[in-house]
């Protein structure tokens, strides 16, 4: 292991010692209890198993065989989650063949950010993560399960399921993916049509035709956004069947991989020699492995929020400085849209997550001495998966990549450092996805234009007011203000301006999509404007300087002036009613209690 990473692991372990120790103590207490069917009252047990056939009840109660919980994010509106419709039937059959039982413990909500972009529903998106975590907990709280199978893929769903499962960390658990949709229109062409639409060169019909060719079937969207970054990170954490992430939902191998996940979980539940409890597996080293995988692939910026929250759920304390330090040691090994032109299917064909993990292990950037659902060590996660009929096997990759324009070895990376950067300065702390922008745009200086909503910026673009060099400051978009919606709809107009030769960038306390890139974006500014953050001190025309090379973001005014400046608040006529409509009133308590983006935007503390 690289010394920097060993030092970082020790630093995280030390600062997490009180919270991690308390978590493991609670976990041990739960783990040492009798099984639910032996411990609960007879009426409780009868209720729990009333719908099962007599032979299944016998299996659980008298034979004391594993009873597995399924927590599913199935719905048939999300293309990525439609395949889960038939999974419970397959899972029950495989469990039965292996002397175990299965019950669907919970269905959790699963929203599509692609549908809600720019709409009021997007203000529920970030908070849906903790709602999913709570829903997972409700299902598992029946407390009659010996392990859990977690069915989810997309943006907030995997983090929510994992946070919920970690609060039941005494149980073994495994995630079951369903894979990406087949390749449609290439992402570069899709983006060009969006830009043409923003310019008024094509109409709604042409835009809808393009989008429908991109999003056209079952499976995750094929760009490397938050959903597919989820799958990369779960592989790196050892929580999948090794290599399962990016195989098409209707590939013949998919059922066998799902069946293997069930068999693995049963084996882990039955193993009395080695601990396979999820909360013990997800330790400081496993969290660092996930962080390294994110940095090495230029993954979604959303995970600088989500994986902080996931770590916290296991009693592990990390922040953006830890990502920043780790990025110095982790090379950028993948170029997948929006960081390149390839989609995830091409990424998989070139080697995919397994090739990246192999390279990180060989380069001392990932810990091998961890426990995974496949057993001790990460070796299988760095090997090529093959499925022949009902036989799964893992073999070594060739030394070279299948396509070094998409995936590279650690000796010849796309960059010596990871694809995300922490920016610090007199405005606060923010992050930038540097893997998606060329180095000649790492340093941007320009006058601020102030917007208090994304609608204000879009209106200014339509009115032709943005035909110049500027840095858009979009504020009051953080968790406390309105739930921190993604501002992905700002990407096409800003891209149009950048293509015209203007120097443009964005500074915001909101989120951009995991699919965003191209335009320099300092996002997740913390503290946010609604908490009195310095982003609300910036005035129209102030010169801003973003320097992603050294990791700084500053307003170029003298210190005394900056210190004396008051934080602006939204005027009454600018205030949007974010507290009502589209269900937002039900999330008032979450907005009230949410922590900062850098603290994971968690709502349960």
TrEMBL record:
Cofactor: [4Fe-4S] cluster
Gene Ontology CC: cytosol
Top-level taxonomy: Bacteria, Pseudomonadati, Pseudomonadota, Betaproteobacteria, Nitrosomonadales
Protein's pathway: Carbohydrate metabolism; Entner-Doudoroff pathway
Naturally occurring in which organism (per UniProt): beta proteobacterium KB13
GO MF annotations, alphabetized: 4 iron, 4 sulfur cluster binding; metal ion binding; phosphogluconate dehydratase activity
Keywords from the UniProt entry: 4Fe-4S, Carbohydrate metabolism, Gluconate utilization, Iron, Iron-sulfur, Lyase, Metal-binding
Cofactor note: Binds 1 [4Fe-4S] cluster.
UniProt: [4Fe-4S] cluster binding residues: 154, 221
InterPro entries: 6-phosphgluc_deHydtase (IPR004786), Dihydro-acid_dehy_C (IPR042096), DiOHA_6PGluconate_deHydtase_CS (IPR020558), ILV_EDD_C (IPR056740), ILV_EDD_N (IPR000581), IlvD/EDD_N (IPR037237)
GO BP term, pick one: Entner-Doudoroff pathway through 6-phosphogluconate
Name of the protein: Phosphogluconate dehydratase
Record-stated family: Belongs to the IlvD/Edd family.
Swiss-Prot/TrEMBL catalytic activity: 6-phospho-D-gluconate = 2-dehydro-3-deoxy-6-phospho-D-gluconate + H2O
Dihydroxy-acid/6-phosphogluconate dehydratase C-terminal domain ranges (all copies): 406-601
Domain Dihydroxy-acid/6-phosphogluconate dehydratase N-terminal: 65-379
Pfam families: ILV_EDD_C, ILVD_EDD_N
EC number: 4.2.1.12
Annotated function: Catalyzes the dehydration of 6-phospho-D-gluconate to 2-dehydro-3-deoxy-6-phospho-D-gluconate.
SUPFAM superfamilies noted in UniProt: IlvD/EDD N-terminal domain-like, LeuD/IlvD-like
């Amino acid at each position: 292991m690289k010394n920097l990473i060993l030092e970082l692991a020790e630093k995280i372990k030390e600062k997490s010692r009180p919270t991690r120790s308390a978590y493991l103590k609670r976990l041990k207490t739960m783990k040492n209890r009798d099984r639910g069917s032996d411990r609960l009252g007879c009426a409780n047990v009868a209720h729990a198993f009333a719908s099962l056939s007599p032979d299944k009840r016998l299996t659980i109660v008298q034979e004391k065989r594993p009873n597995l919980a399924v927590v599913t994010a199935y719905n048939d509106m999300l293309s990525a989650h439609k395949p889960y419709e038939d999974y419970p039937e397959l899972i029950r059959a495989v469990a039965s063949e292996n002397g175990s039982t299965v019950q669907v413990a919970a269905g959790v909500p699963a929203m599509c950010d692609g549908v809600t972009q720019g709409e009021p529903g997007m203000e529920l998106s970030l908070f849906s993560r903790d709602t999913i975590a709570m829903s997972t907990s409700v299902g598992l709280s029946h407390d009659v399960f010996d392990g859990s199978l977690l069915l989810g893929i997309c943006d907030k769903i995997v983090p929510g399921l994992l946070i919920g499962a970690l609060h039941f960390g005494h149980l073994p658990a495994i995630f079951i993916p369903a894979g990406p949709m087949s390749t449609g229109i290439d992402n570069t062409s899709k983006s060009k049509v969006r830009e043409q639409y923003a310019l008024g060169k094509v109409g709604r019909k042409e835009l809808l035709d393009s989008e429908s060719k991109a999003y056209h079937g079952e499976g995750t969207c094929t760009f490397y956004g938050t959903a597919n970054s989820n799958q990369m990170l779960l592989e790196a954490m050892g929580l999948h069947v090794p290599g399962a992430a990016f195989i098409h939902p209707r590939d013949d191998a998919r059922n066998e991989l799902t069946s293997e996940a069930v068999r693995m979980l049963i084996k882990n539940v039955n193993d009395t020699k080695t601990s396979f409890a999820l909360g013990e597996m997800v330790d400081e080293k496993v969290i660092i492995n996930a962080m390294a995988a994110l940095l090495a692939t230029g993954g979604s910026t959303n995970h600088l929020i989500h994986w902080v929250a996931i770590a916290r759920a296991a009693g592990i304390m990390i922040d953006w400085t830890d990502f920043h330090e780790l990025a110095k040691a982790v090379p950028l090994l993948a170029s997948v849209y929006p960081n390149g032109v390839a989609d995830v299917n091409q990424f998989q064909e070139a080697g995919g997550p397994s090739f990246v993990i192999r390279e990180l292990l060989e380069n001392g950037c990932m810990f091998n001495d961890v426990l995974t659902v496949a057993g001790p060590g990460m070796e299988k996660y760095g090997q090529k998966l093959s499925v022949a009929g009902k036989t799964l096997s893992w073999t070594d990759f060739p030394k070279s990549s299948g396509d070094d324009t998409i995936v590279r070895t650690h000796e010849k990376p796309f960059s010596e450092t990871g694809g995300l950067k922490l920016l610090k300065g007199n405005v606060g702390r923010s992050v930038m996805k540097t893997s998606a922008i060329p180095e000649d745009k790492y340093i941007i200086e320009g006058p601020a234009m102030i917007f208090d909503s994304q609608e204000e910026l879009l209106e200014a673009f339509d009115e032709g007011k943005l035909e110049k060099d500027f840095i858009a400051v979009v504020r009051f978009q953080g968790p406390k203000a309105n739930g921190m919606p993604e501002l992905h709809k700002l990407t096409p107009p800003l891209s149009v301006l950048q293509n015209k030769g203007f120097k443009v960038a964005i500074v915001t306390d909101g989120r951009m999509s995991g699919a965003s890139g191209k335009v320099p974006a300092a996002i997740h500014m913390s503290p946010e404007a609604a908490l009195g953050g310095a982003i609300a001190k910036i005035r129209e025309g102030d010169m801003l300087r973003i320097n992603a090379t050294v990791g700084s973001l500053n307003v170029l005014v003298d210190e005394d002036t900056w210190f004396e400046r008051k934080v602006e608040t939204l005027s009454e006529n600018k205030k949007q009613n974010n507290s009502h409509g589209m269900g937002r009133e039900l999330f008032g308590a979450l907005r009230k209690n949410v922590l900062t983006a850098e603290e994971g935007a968690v709502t349960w503390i």
